[in-house]
C-alpha cells in the first residue's frame, strides 16, 4: 500500500483527506501509533471537518487491532483533548484535526509523554508502517467519555473577572464554535457570536486568525457593536486572533508582549521562548522588562519541547499559539489565552489598545504563505540560507547576520526578513519588518528579488 511520505511532517501528520488519508492509511497510522506508545489506553478526539469521522473510525480500528483500548471523547477542540490527558492521567492521545487549513485537509496530532510528537518520533511511526512492525495482542475496546464539564469548571476557576466584557467571538464555523461561547459566558461576558455554528464546509471563511481576510468581519463586528474586544479562533481551538476596541488586529507576537509583561512582574529574569517569525519589538520588549528572550523554531510541538528544555514558563508563536506553564499545563489553549487577556484588562482597568500603546512600533508584513511544492520547498530554503549567508560577508549587502535555526531570518541594520518552509502546507512562509516604512520596503525588495529566482514559488506581497 502506498502512503504519501510528505504527510509525515515535522510536528504532525497532515495531508489531503480524500487522497492522502484514506481509511487504509488511517488504520495503518493507528496500528503504528498504538505499537509505538506504551500507554495501554489512548484518548482519541476529532474536529468537525467532514472527513474527520471517517478518519477517526479507521484510526480507532487500527489502535484496537493491536490491543490498545480507546477513550473516545468525540468532537472536541485541542485544549479539551489535551486537558483530558491530564484529567484521566493517560499519556496516549491522538487528535484527528486539520487545524487552520482549508476544508480538504485533515491530519493527526499525536501525543507522547508531556508533549506532542515531533520530527524524529513521527518518522519512526512511518518506519513502523513501512516495515510492518506492529505489536499483536487481543483486540482492544472503546470507552466513551466526555471531559467537557470538567474542562469548563477548570477554566472558569482559573479566570475570575469582575467586569462584564462585551466580546465578539468568531470561530469561522470551526469546532471552537461548539465550545467557545459557553466558556466566555461562564466568565460573565456578553458574547456576540460570529460564525459559531459548526459547519465543516467553512462557508464564510477558513478558521485561520493569522489571515487578514479571515479577521475583517470580526473587526467590523467589534466596531459596529462597540465591543471591548474581539477574538478569532482556528478550527481546533489552539490558535487565537485578537482585535482591540479600536479595530486593530493584535498579531500573536504583539499579544506575547502583553503576556510576558505580566509574567516578568511576577518572575523577574524569566526565560521567554520566541518563535522565529515574531517581531523584533517582542524581543526588545522582553529585554526591556528584564527577561531572557530565546528565538526558536516554528511549530507547536517544537516550541513546547523547547519550553520544557529551558524550563520556561511562557512561549508564543506569531500564529497565535501561546503556551502557559505559568498557572496552567504548558499546552496551547486559545480559550485560556483569551481568558488571560480579559483578566489583564480587568486587573488594569485599561483597554488592550492602551496597554500596548508603549510597545515598540515597527512596520511589518503579515505572514505570507507562498505556494511551493513539498518536494522542493526544503531544498529551496536551504539554497536561500546559503545565498544570504554568502551575501552577509559583503558589506554592501547591508546584512548583519543570518539566524538559521528555522530557515533564514536575515537581519539588517534596521529590520529583518524571513523565509522558511511550512511544515503543515506546501508553502514557504515569508515575513519582513523594518523600523520605518522605507526600511520595510527595502527589505521586501530584497526578499522579492530572491523569490524571483525560484519559479516553483508562487509569491506576492499582500
Automatic annotation (TrEMBL):
GO biological process, one term: carbohydrate metabolic process
A Pfam short name: PGM_PMM_II
Gene3D superfamilies attached to this UniProt entry: Alpha-D-Glucose-1,6-Bisphosphate, subunit A, domain 3 (3.40.120.10), Alpha-D-phosphohexomutase, C-terminal domain (3.30.310.50)
InterPro entries: A-D-PHexomutase_a/b/a-I (IPR005844), A-D-PHexomutase_a/b/a-I/II/III (IPR016055), A-D-PHexomutase_a/b/a-II (IPR005845), A-D-PHexomutase_a/b/a-III (IPR005846), A-D-PHexomutase_C (IPR005843), A-D-PHexomutase_C_sf (IPR036900), Alpha-D-phosphohexomutase_SF (IPR005841)
Domain Alpha-D-phosphohexomutase alpha/beta/alpha, chain residue ranges per copy: 7-134, 150-247, 252-361
Domain of life, source organism: Bacteria
Names of required cofactors: Mg(2+)
Residue ranges annotated for the Alpha-D-phosphohexomutase C-terminal domain, each copy included: 384-444
UniProt entry keywords in alphabetical sequence: Isomerase, Magnesium, Metal-binding, Phosphoprotein
GO MF terms, alphabetically ordered: intramolecular phosphotransferase activity; metal ion binding
Protein family (similarity comment): Belongs to the phosphohexose mutase family.
Name of this protein: Phosphomannomutase
